[in-house]
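Progress note, sequence design subtask.
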């Protein structure tokens, strides 16, 4: 096993900077409690019950109103009864319930409303 790891490190030294000292910290070695590799963009989805890359499978995509350099991704349940929000400001992911015209959080802190121009994200200001 050690010979295989050393060979892997040697063959990837130029591209990943792997050394014998960092062999235990290879790219993708950061698995969370659900088995998702966050360095590869994977996060646990309660709706899908699996690790997903939200940016790859999101049904809706918004610019974060708190920081325009960040994005908010939304995955809709297959029956469209719930929506799961992936945001840098919300851990764990926020689950929204379907309401007339869109989705809203139980505490009303976030809503996604379908308008004639498309989907709109509405965030209640924090006090």
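Output:
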């Amino acid at each position: 096993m050690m010979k295989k790891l050393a060979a892997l490190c040697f063959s990837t030294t130029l591209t990943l900077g792997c050394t014998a000292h960092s062999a235990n910290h290879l790219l993708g070695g950061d698995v969370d409690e659900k088995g998702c590799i966050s360095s590869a963009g994977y996060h646990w989805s309660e709706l899908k019950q699996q690790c997903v890359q939200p940016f790859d499978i999101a049904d809706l995509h918004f610019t974060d109103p708190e920081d325009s350099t960040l994005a908010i991704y939304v995955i809709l349940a297959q029956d469209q009864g719930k929506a799961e929000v992936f945001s840098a400001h919300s851990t764990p992911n926020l689950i929204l319930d379907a309401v007339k015209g869109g989705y809203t959080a139980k505490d009303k802190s976030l809503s996604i409303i379908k308008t004639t121009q498309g989907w709109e994200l509405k965030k209640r200001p924090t006090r």
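The chain has two domains: 1-30, 31-123. Work on this subtask will continue into the next period as scheduled.
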